[in-house]
């Protein structure tokens, strides 16, 4: 009998449950396994919150969003720091893993989660990682589960904005999630027919953004739609030292970059600007069919690693094949949008502006 525990960490997304189901069903079909659920992410591993799961727990959750185990954010940079009571978090996680008699820990999460997973690997725990994030920014995998579902939601929001933007002849800004990378904004912006797409990897000039809006107006277009990543940054701000930029953000009178851009466009053009922020709705609801298929494949592959006792890996997608990559190669790296990539060149060729 081997004991395997699941842990979901960081922000939730639509296919966490579907992925755990893929792991569980494959393990149950191929050996004698007990599966446990660690509650509320690394917090549960630190403070000993775990429950045994039954096969029935994984029935009917393929289409269920969120995570049945709960989640929490435990920043990697604080993992080596004692908590408010002086508890050594890393030692506590190692002790609980040993006391529970676990043979493997399956960790579903994004970049910070995978960094901590690699830390636990370095500390001698058997770990298998699974790439979860709506941002699609985990190095080593072409796709993360949750991304396509979030693209669908953000695209649907842009689609719906089209009708009201046309009716009222206004400029609309749709702010899409993505602090550091722009994959979600890029894909939703393309799929939703946005006229301007602003992402963190391509700093914008507000005059170029205004020019794109005015050019549409000159061509008789009644409206313009901007898809703006929440981490979009101007060229001027991108040139600031990191500390100075953080200080500027702290003192910024606007709630987000979209409101700042909206105010600047209104000032220069006199047009009415409206901001729409779908926010956490992008993480919510049922996973789309693509994510259901992807998460099932990833889960089955993770179970395969466990069966083979091939630990210290993260399951990944490369060229539509499911493979695995060492956690030490994944940890600490972001998969950014390359401003010179073919997808960016193709969209530029269509006349869509990136504000640069």
Structure, explained:
It is a single chain. This protein is α/β, with parallel strands linked by helices. Helices cover 41% and strands 17% of the residues. The chain contains 13 helices and 11 strands. Strands 3-2-1-4-5-10-11 form a 7-stranded mixed beta sheet, with helices on both faces. Strands 7-8-6-9 form a 4-stranded parallel beta sheet, sandwiched between helices. Strand 7 (196-198), helix 7 and strand 8 form a beta-alpha-beta unit. The longest helix is centred in the middle third of the chain and has 22 residues, at 147-168.
Would you spell out the secondary-structure blueprint of this structure?
Layout: E1 2-8, H1 16-29, E2 33-38, H2 42-47, E3 50-53, H3 89-99, E4 104-109, H4 111-122, E5 127-131, H5 147-168, E6 171-176, H6 183-191, E7 196-198, H7 206-218, E8 224-229, H8 235-238, H9 242-251, H10 257-269, E9 273-276, H11 289-307, E10 313-318, E11 321-326, H12 327-330, H13 342-349
Parallel strand pairs: 1-2, 1-4, 4-5, 5-10, 6-8, 6-9, 7-8
Antiparallel strand pairs: 2-3, 10-11
Helix pairs in contact: 1-11, 5-6, 7-10
Question: What low-confidence regions span 5 or more consecutive residues with pLDDT below 50?
Answer: none
Whole-number average pLDDT? 95
CA(first)-CA(last) distance: 59 Å
List the helices and strands in order. EHEHEHEHEHEHEHEHHHEHEEHH
Number of helices: 13
Give the class from helix and strand content and strand pairing.
alpha/beta
Rg over C-alpha atoms, rounded to the nearest angstrom: 22 Å
Strand order of the largest sheet: 3-2-1-4-5-10-11
Profile the largest sheet: 7 strands, mixed
Tell me roughly what share of residues is in helical segments.
40-55%
Shape: elongated
Give me the count of strands. Answer: 11
Beta fraction of the residues? Answer: 15-25%
């Amino acid at each position: 009998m081997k004991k395997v525990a699941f842990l979901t960490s960081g922000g939730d997304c639509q296919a966490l449950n579907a992925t755990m189901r893929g792991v569980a069903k494959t393990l149950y079909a191929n050996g004698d396994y007990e599966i446990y659920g660690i509650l509320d992410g690394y917090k549960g591993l630190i403070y000993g919150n775990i429950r045994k799961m039954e096969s029935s727990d994984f029935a009917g959750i393929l289409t269920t969003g969120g995570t049945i185990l709960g989640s929490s954010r435990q920043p990697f940079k604080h993992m080596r720091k004692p908590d408010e009571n002086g508890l050594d978090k890393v030692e506590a996680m190692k002790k609980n893993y040993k006391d529970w008699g676990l043979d493997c820990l399956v960790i579903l999460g994004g970049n910070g989660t995978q960094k901590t997973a690699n830390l636990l690997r370095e500390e001698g725990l058997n770990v298998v990682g699974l790439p979860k994030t709506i941002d699609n920014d985990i190095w080593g995998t072409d796709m993360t589960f949750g991304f396509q579902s979030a693209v669908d939601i953000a695209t649907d929001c842009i689609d719906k904005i089209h009708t009201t933007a046309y009716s009222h002849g206004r400029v609309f800004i749709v702010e899409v999630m993505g602090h550091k990378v722009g994959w979600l904004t890029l894909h939703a912006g393309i799929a939703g027919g946005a006229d301007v797409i602003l992402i963190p990897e391509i700093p914008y000039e507000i005059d170029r953004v205004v020019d794109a809006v005015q050019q549409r107006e000159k061509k008789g277009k009644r409206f313009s739609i901007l898809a703006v990543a929440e981490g979009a940054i101007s060229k001027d701000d991108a040139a600031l030292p990191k500390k100075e930029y953080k200080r500027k953000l702290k003192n910024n009178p606007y709630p987000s970059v979209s409101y700042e851009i909206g105010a600047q466009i209104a000032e220069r053009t006199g047009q009415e600007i409206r901001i729409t922020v779908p926010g956490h709705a992008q993480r919510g609801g049922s996973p789309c069919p693509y994510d259901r298929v992807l998460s099932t494949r990833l889960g089955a592959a993770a179970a395969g690693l466990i069966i083979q006792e091939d630990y210290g890996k993260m399951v990944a997608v490369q060229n539509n094949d499911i493979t695995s990559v060492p956690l030490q190669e994944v940890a600490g790296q972001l998969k950014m949008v390359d401003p010179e990539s073919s997808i960016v060149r193709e969209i530029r060729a269509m006349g869509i502006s990136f504000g640069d």
